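User: Structure with nicotinamide-adenine-dinucleotide, tokens only please.
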Amino acid sequence: MSKTILILPGDGIGPEIIAEAVKVIACLRDDFGLAVETQEALVGGCAYDATGSPLPEDTLNQAKAADAVLLGAVGGPKWEPLPIAVRPEKGLLGLRAGLGLFANLRPALLYPQLAAASTLKPEVVAGLDLMIIRELTGGIYFGQPRGVETLDSGERRGFNTLVYSESEIERICRVAFDIAMQRNKRVCSVDKANVLEATELWREVAIKVGQDYPEVSLSHMYVDNAAMQLVRAPKQFDVMVTTNMFGDILSDCAAMLTGSIGMLPSAALNASGQGMYEPIHGSAPDIAGQGVANPLATILSVAMMLRYSLGAPEQAERLEQAVESVLDQGLRSADLASPGTKTVGTAAMGDAVVAALRASG
Ligand code: NAD
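Assistant:
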């Protein structure tokens, strides 16, 4: 049965990079038998302009009904003066909340062809392929009570609460173990169990879930050590799973090991495997409309979608290999340009991926 992808181009470079991802999806459908249909809707600043809301009800309903959502990016200077409640970013948060997307998957993969783009030594990062799984809807970012209070002394005190229930920990750990089963079967659970009771529970539950995955080896690391190890020897990791705040910090750190924001996809999944897929970068208003944006993070987000929501891992692999073959040909968008490579625009890069896909058939 055909699966439905809701396409949300959004703002800035969003429509440009999404156009290339749509070409790729059409190629997989027409040439390789992928059973999908696509719909398109508005989110972000363009949705506000058209309807007065950054997340129109129709868009949310279509997203809920779809098997997967592919998002470009939202936001830009035009909408910055708006009240927070109707800013483009609210559209994104509304989608995450509305779909219950609790598992954020952030791969950090460094193509050997781009090893020079990292700020770390090539031998430390060449071949890096790690997946950080961040809990996205709980932890200290959502815990109650929270606030700033004034004490009798007149001094103010700010407070937040780190809270996780067993079921919240269990479901994110299951995602990590399931994904590890599709990769190199190693999970590192990151916590601060020596100081924080909530993450002591995290560690206990991770161990319990791990018993259901005898093939996966489970290790534990305190978050401070994990941060150090990520820049010391990042290739030791396969899958890392951690809390909302630790994951927020560690995933940005890991992303930058690869040095190229235009190459990194992401996914956010809910309990039924439905997901929203997007490049990690924003709407890049500084280069919007120039046809120079790198579409590869968005195209690689399609590969994640094939693997995690559409049940088509072999098509995901085919697409990832097509991207690699384009890099092998020396084609680079402006953000990756270096001596000896050929700089191409957004559409030419998308066309090259489609050509490489066809050549693989
Ligand atoms: P940004 O990621 O849009 O841009 C940072 C820098 O990276 C810019 O110089 C940009 O030109 C470059 N860049 C980004 N993507 C690129 C690509 N595909 N190819 C080539 N170069 C690329 O971050 P920002 O400038 O801080 O934010 C711009 C807008 O995007 C803001 O309105 C922000 O709120 C929004 N934003 C949206 C998302 C999202 O939709 N998920 C994420 C982050 C930021």
